[in-house]
Automatic annotation (TrEMBL):
Organism field: Micromonospora palomenae
Boundaries of every DUF2786 domain copy: 181-219
Residue stretches making up the DUF7168 domain: 248-356
InterPro entries: DUF2786, DUF7168
Region (Disordered), start-end ranges: 157-179, 386-413
Signal peptide start and end residues: none
Pfam annotation, one family: DUF7168
Protein name: Uncharacterized protein DUF2786
């Protein structure tokens, strides 16, 4: 009788190949199982074991649970994304040694938990929960395995469980933060997302950036005198289609306004942001909110276009979002520079400026270490109407715009 692991290996290899009929034949063999009375249960347990093993091999290659869940959902769909969450829970169950708190925070955020009693019955129960048959469940599991086995190494932002090295903590951004200032920022951004008045949204977002900048300066001064100063960390933000380049540009603009660096990997659908913990949290908060605001403004802008316009919607949308990102970036940087000026007056530039310079140098060094081969890409503006509308949406106080510039954007390493 065939071995369960051999059957799975054959199916994964066939799915990764180009022969569709061969892949279906290998999946059919998995449906039959090993031929023993409990052959299908043995296959199901072996599948979960293989999934957990594939995940464990990704952690030393830079991947984190949220990255894997996002990638599986992006490439294969929502249902395989839910399947890999179960695999993440199974892999966590078998992890030995110390596991950093941020790791379990990610799993909690994904709702990855062991809800089944027996690994041999897991796949059948998962299929029933999904309302699918066994063939579909097996296909999902094998496709997830094939994807996990083919993922490339990415930058190691934080040591995985058992990886050793310094751990850079970053507070989870869901719910209340424990910081009254950041809770005020969340409240301001929530109002900015809900208002239908662009000028009000811009004012609220500008106020949020002002508070963030002041908070960042206060933290920088405190950490400069700490016995064990903070170290630059990193996070990844999704830049999935549509308009992935525009989303990456928005990440870059928000990151630059908050003393962070960003690198976009178009193939994998995310931008990596490097910076200090408080600044990273600010970037994630602002990017998430501004993406909502930009999308809403873009949809409103479509309705304002002249009837009978021959311009394509895609070109308009991309140009709109590019212009929105660039103008918002200018406004955010202006708020940060004003906060810097006020802080320098209060504390003395001889105290503040060396601290900021040292932190910028540390972030840049971290970027050069993780992304030594980074290149730059250019985003092209193809619709002047979209450009003007996006600029206006980002800053109603300045309605004139010249020829849209070609904007360099850090690309993948």
């Amino acid at each position: 009788m065939p071995d369960a692991h051999a059957l799975i290996a054959d199916a994964v290899a066939a799915v990764r190949g180009t022969d569709v009929r061969d892949a279906e034949r290998k999946l059919d063999r998995l449906v039959v199982g090993t031929g023993a009375p409990d052959g299908t249960a043995v296959v199901d347990a072996a599948l979960l074991d293989r999934l957990a093993g594939a995940l464990a091999r990704l952690w030393p290659r830079g991947w984190q649970p949220v990255d894997v869940a996002r990638m599986v959902t992006r490439r294969l769909g929502a249902r395989p994304g839910r399947l890999v969450r179960d695999a993440l829970a199974a892999q966590r169950r078998g992890q030995a040694g110390d596991v950093p708190p941020w790791w379990d925070e990610q799993l909690d955020g994904l709702a990855a938990r062991v809800w089944w009693d027996d690994d041999a019955g897991w796949l059948a129960r998962w299929a029933a929960r999904e309302g699918e048959d066994r063939i579909t469940a097996l296909r999902d599991a094998v496709e997830v395995l094939a994807l996990l086995d083919g993922l490339p190494p990415i930058a190691m932002l934080r040591p995985p469980p058992g990886g050793g090295g310094p751990t850079v903590a970053r507070r989870a951004t869901s719910g209340r933060s424990g910081s009254p200032m950041l809770d005020r920022v969340r409240a301001l951004l929530a109002k900015a997302e809900s208002t239908t008045f662009p000028a009000e949204a811009e004012a609220l977002t500008g106020k949020a950036q002002e508070l963030i900048a002041r908070h960042s300066l206060d933290r920088a001064m405190v950490e400069a005198t700490a016995e064990r100063p903070d170290l630059p960390g990193g996070m990844r933000l999704s830049t999935d289609a549509p308009y992935a380049g525009a989303k990456a540009l928005l990440v870059q603009e928000v990151a630059a306004a908050n003393r962070c660096e960003s690198v976009w990997n178009d193939d994998l659908g995310f931008a990596t942001v490097l910076g200090f913990a408080g600044d990273l949290e600010a970037v994630e908060l602002l990017y998430t909110s501004l993406l909502v605001q930009a999308t809403a403004a873009m949809l409103r802008g479509r309705t304002e276009r002249k009837r009978g316009s021959s311009r394509r919607t895609k070109a308009y949308d991309e140009s709109f979002l590019h212009a929105f990102a660039l103008r918002i970036g200018e406004r955010l940087r202006a708020a940060t520079e004003e906060a810097n000026r006020q802080a320098a007056e209060a504390t003395g530039p001889e105290r503040l400026l060396p601290v900021l310079a040292a932190r910028s140098d540390a972030v840049r060094e971290r970027m050069e270490t993780l992304f030594p081969g980074v290149t730059r890409a250019r985003l092209t503006i193809r619709d002047a109407d979209g450009w003007h509308s996006g600029t206006s949406a980002a800053d109603r106080a300045s309605l004139s715009a010249g020829t849209p510039p070609a904007r360099p954007l850090p690309g993948r390493s």
